[in-house]
Amino acid sequence: MSDHAGRIVGIYQRHALAFDGARGKSLFERPWLERFKSLLPTDSAILDIGCGSGEPIARHFIEAGRAVTGIDASPPLIGLCTQRFPEQDWLVADMRSLALGRRFGGLLAWDSFFHLTPEDQRGMFAVFAAHAAPGAALMFTSGPSHGEAIGSFEGEPLYHGSLDPQEYRELLDRSGFAVVSHVVEDPGCGGRTIWLARTR
């Protein structure tokens, strides 16, 4: 299945406009985004890891007065972000090798981190730690248990991977984060499994 993981970037390059059109703008994630926002240090910036087209999530934070730096491996999606929010920072980058030399008060990897293989996900916790300011909040979505699954988007196989919940807890702890909240397959958020943590 990991062969499919290597095709993720290409899917989001070829189908950027379809993804943008399919992504609802109703912000059903709002309760979680508000919890995340409540943990952010005053006036701190947010790093949106796998920002997609910048709507609706980055827009939500920008309109709340937060500076956003968004990274995505799809140049067409970053192009949409740049058109919509030219005053923010948008970068084409692979999250696995991210090294911005900056720290942020909020790190968000919503519906992006789970496209990595389990092994690559393990490596991401050092990336999170390297970009987290003191007191930073971290929120990401994962699968409910260890494994791999293949969905579909625009007729192409869409890879998802996950670690076991206990391993996520251990990785967060070793990386200096304490779990604030964890909900498995939250029915109020489209069945997503969500992790919200904060640097100790």
Automatic annotation (TrEMBL):
The UniProt entry's GO biological process terms, in alphabetical order, are: methylation
- Output the CDD domains linked to this UniProt entry: AdoMet_MTases (cd02440)
Q: Which UniProt keywords apply?
A: Methyltransferase, Transferase
From which residue to which does any coiled coil extend?
none
Q: GO molecular-function annotation terms?
A: methyltransferase activity
Query: Domain Methyltransferase, which positions?
Result: 46-135
**Record's protein name:** Class I SAM-dependent methyltransferase
Q: Which organism is it from?
A: Bosea caraganae
